Amino acid sequence: MTLLRGNNVASTYVATLAADGTHAVDKRRLTLDENENDPFAWTPDSKAVLLSSDRNGTMELFKQGVDQTVAENLMTSAQQLLQPKVTPDGSEILYISAPKYPAERSQSSIFAIPTAGGVPRLVLKDVNI
Q: Could you say which DSSP state residue 75 is in?
């Protein structure tokens, strides 16, 4: 019998780039829990990281400041909320909302929420997003 056990839970680290730009210095773990924490973008002011995390049982959107030990929940849903990205003008965060258990032709949606917080608006709904 052969047994293989692994742990592929993503954690998020931050570091400062050395003055010569060749390597990272002061690397440290940002997300301190043992959940999946997938970083996707910096906030426009570069003081926080936008994450998708399953810390509440399904993937949701979080923002964690580089000087914070706990992430702030930005959006909760029964659906998976994935891949937060800041728009080029910095005014909104785009993200994907997908079924937790998708079927072959399940539709997903792209939503936008104001960077300062607020009500999400639907941008696009289609299959295979």
A: E
Q: What type of residue is 70? A: V
Q: How many other C-beta atoms can be found within 10 angstroms of the C-beta atom of residue 19?
A: 7
CA distances from 33 to 44, 78, 126 (A): 25, 22, 33
d(CA 49, CA 37): 11
Alpha carbon distance 30, 32 (integer Å): 6
Q: Where are the domains of the chain?
A: 13-17+25-127
Structure tokens at 4: 């293989």
Cα 100 versus chain centre, distance:
16
Structure tokens at 87: 């728009």
13-17+25-127 classified as CATH 3.40.50.1970 = no
* pLDDT tens digits, one per residue of 84-128: 999 999 999 999 999 988 788 889 999 999 998 899 999 999 998
Report the amino acid identity of residue 10: A
